[in-house]
Structures are given as structure tokens and as C-alpha cells.
Write a structure and sequence with these properties.
- This protein is an alpha+beta fold and about 350 residues long.
- The two termini are about 35 Å apart.
- Bound molecules: adenosine monophosphate and magnesium ion.
Length: about 350
């Protein structure tokens, strides 16, 4: 959490520092929430007055809170069938869920065949094991351990996405394999950010930057004379995200990074990241970080996780299915690679917010 807070504060400082004075009509405001999606959510926007800003933010916050509860894997809520309910009950009988939960599962399942086996929301069993070992190892570093490979293999026998049976007619979800568990961590924040961003686009504050725990979705350009917003790409080696390796200048787009510097733990001086390769059942090691850019934040979130697992060459093949998607890799050996479309957005290569 502390790492996330520092990252968000660094971003706020960067944006504040870069800004010229706003026009007389529109002022720049910032709001930070600490209790959504287990991370820090920041909204920066240009609004005609503080009341407008506050009321737009309150709507966004309420929507994010509802989505957080729906996509919550660990807690159930009175009167709500959420992800936790599904994992408890969908192996026994179909469970009816709200449209947003149905849609995110349908979206991730639909995209799976294009992702070269890199992301599988049905691998919740394996991810739960890693999660428990990571939590225990973080709380007690001296006794941090790796999960036994046998338990990972046996959990991996229950992760066939085709066993997730969706019925669009009545929004039900059923697990044909009763031991299957879903994990939406790879896409939940992006999916939620996209839904909220579409409401912000149609609100009285269409010029904004929404940062949901590092999952960034940007609205229209800032109203202070700059032509675009600036978003830093964090140096994977920088502590608390205080150093960028480059800056993306863009508007009306999403920027999402998956990195090995988030939610890792250490066993015998080796870091183990939170993104797990479905092939090896071990943390993915091809990249230090991958930043994806696309208009749609849900897709962007899915792609950043997928590209993090894959080699850059495999990632390029995945990107060929997604026109408008761009990527920036910091590979395991520290090499920096980016797609042609990404180069047009990078400050180091001449992109500007002027
Ligand atoms: P992100 O930070 O968006 O890259 O997503 C990472 C989260 O996605 C992890 O914390 C897990 O909850 C989940 N996850 C990790 N590896 C995978 C994978 N290969 N497929 C699906 N979900 C994953
Ligand atoms: Mg992701």
C-alpha cells in the first residue's frame, strides 16, 4: 500500500509541477481515495468550480466502490452475488450475477484465445496458493518459502476456462469443474476504470486523469494550454516509483503498467513477482515491466498482464490482434523496446504536451 501511495503522490507532483495556470473558467482539482480496489485512486480534473468537481468525483467514487465489491474475491457483502460468492457457489449450481460481473468474465474469457496462454482468469487456484505464500512470506520474511510445486500442479488441473459456463440469457455463471476458482486481478481495475471513465467522459468534467492504483485512464486534454497529459513510466529499479524512465504524452487513452516491482516477496534473496506464468506456474520472468496503451482501459489492463508474461516477440504477435494497442517493455535484461505507435507518444523521442 505504501508503495502505491508514493507512486500516486509522485504522479500528482509530476502533473502539478508541469501545469501552467488553468484558464479563468476551469480550475484544476485533485481528489485521492485510499479505500478502493485495495489501492490508491486519484482523480485530477478541470472543472468550472469545486462543487462540480466534488459531485463528479462522488459519482465516480460510488461507482468504483460498487465495482470493487462486485469484483472482490475475498469478502462477501449482504445481498450481493460477487466474485467471492461465485468462487464459493458456482461449482455447485449456476449463480446469477450483476451485469458488470457477468460482462468482465465474458470479456476476459472471450479474449483468452488471443493471448497465447499468458492470462487465464480461471487459474484462481494456483494464484490463491501464491497469494497465501506471498502474504505469509511478507509478514515473516525470515521464514518466507516457495509453494511446493506439487500443490501448484494439482491446483492447475482445475483451470480450464472452458469450464466457466456463461449464460447470457440470465447472466448466470457456472463452473463445470467444482474446484475451479476465478481471479480477476489481471483485469478488474482496468475494467472498473473504463466504466467510470465513460461516465466521466459524459460528465461536466471531461478533462481528467483517473489513476486507479496505477491503472490510468485519461480524458480530454488539460485545460491549461497543454495539448496532452503526461504519464511517467516508472523505472522498475526505482524505490517507491520516484524515478521515471520515460514519459508518455497523450489524451483520451489508457496507460497501464504491469511490473515485477509491485506486490513481490523475497525468498532466499530472490524476488518473486505476483504475475504467474500459466506454463511454469512460477512468477513470470521475461520482463521487468510492460506498459500497454490503448483507448480501452479494460483491454489495456489485460494486455499489460499478458505482455508481462510473454516474451516481447510473443507479445508483438498478441498485439497484432489489437489495432491501436501499443507497448513499452523493460525486459529482464534491462533492454527497452517499444512499438512504433508508442514511440510517437514518448517524451524522450520528441513527444510533447506543449
Ligand atoms: P496486473 O497487476 O494487472 O498485471 O495483474 C496481476 C494480478 O492478476 C495478480 O495479482 C493476480 O491476481 C492476477 N494474475 C497473475 N498472473 C495471472 C495470469 N497469468 N493470468 C490471470 N491472472 C493473473
Ligand atoms: Mg493487468
Amino acid at each position: 500500500m505504501r508503495r502505491n501511495i508514493c507512486f500516486v503522490l509522485a504522479l500528482i507532483l509530476c502533473l502539478t509541477g508541469c501545469a501552467a495556470p488553468a484558464s479563468a473558467l476551469e480550475q484544476k482539482y485533485t481528489k485521492v481515495y485510499f479505500d478502493l480496489f485495495d489501492s490508491v485512486v486519484t482523480i485530477i480534473g478541470y472543472a468550472s468550480d469545486e462543487n462540480t468537481f466534488e459531485s463528479v468525483c462522488e459519482q465516480a467514487r460510488a461507482r468504483l466502490e460498487t465495482l470493487h465489491m462486485l469484483f472482490d474475491k475475498y469478502n462477501e457483502y449482504e445481498g450481493l452475488n460477487n466474485l467471492c460468492t461465485l468462487n464459493d457457489q458456482a461449482g455447485t449450481a449456476p449463480v446469477k450475477v450483476d451485469k458488470e460481473l457477468y460482462d468482465i468474465i465474458a470479456f476476459a474469457k472471450r479474449e483468452t484465445p488471443k493471448l497465447r496462454g499468458s492470462v487465464n482468469i480461471a487459474m484462481g487456484g494456483v494464484l490463491n496458493i501464491w497469494h497465501d505464500y506471498r502474504e505469509t512470506g511478507t509478514a515473516d520474511p525470515a521464514n518466507a518459502a516457495l509453494p511446493p510445486i506439487e500443490s501448484l500442479i494439482s491446483a492447475s488441473e482445475h483451470q480450464d476456462i472452458d469450464d466457466v459456463i456463461l449464460s447470457e440469457a440470465d447472466n448466470t455463471v457456472y463452473f463445470r469443474d467444482p474446484e475451479l476458482q476465478l481471479d480477476l486481478g489481471a483485469v478488474a481495475k482496468g475494467y472498473a476504470a473504463e466504466l467510470v471513465a465513460r461516465e466521466l467522459d459524459a460528465s461536466d468534467m471531461p478533462s481528467y486523469i483517473l489513476n486507479a492504483g496505477g491503472n490510468i485512464r485519461i480524458g480530454k486534454p488539460p485545460l491549461d494550454g497543454r495539448s496532452s497529459w503526461s504519464v511517467g513510466i516508472q523505472d522498475p529499479d526505482a524505490l517507491y516509483g520516484e524515478r521515471n524512465i520515460d514519459v508518455i504524452c497523450a489524451s483520451e487513452i489508457s496507460v497501464v503498467t504491469s511490473g515485477d516491482y509491485e506486490r513481490y516477496y523475497t525468498v532466499d534473496n530472490v524476488r518473486y513477482a505476483h504475475i504467474i506464468s500459466p506454463d511454469t506456474l512460477m512468477p513470470a520472468v521475461n520482463n521487468r515491466s510492460v506498459t500497454a496503451v490503448h483507448k480501452d482501459s479494460a483491454l489495456c489492463d489485460l494486455l499489460s498482464t499478458a505482455l508481462f508474461v510473454l516474451t516481447p516477440d510473443e507479445g508483438l504477435e498478441v498485439l497484432s490482434h489489437y489495432p491501436g494497442a501499443e507497448a513499452y517493455w523493460v525486459t529482464a535484461s534491462g533492454e527497452i523496446l517499444y512499438t512504433g505507435g508508442m514511440s510517437a507518444l514518448l517524451k524522450s523521442l520528441g513527444a510533447s504536451d506543449k
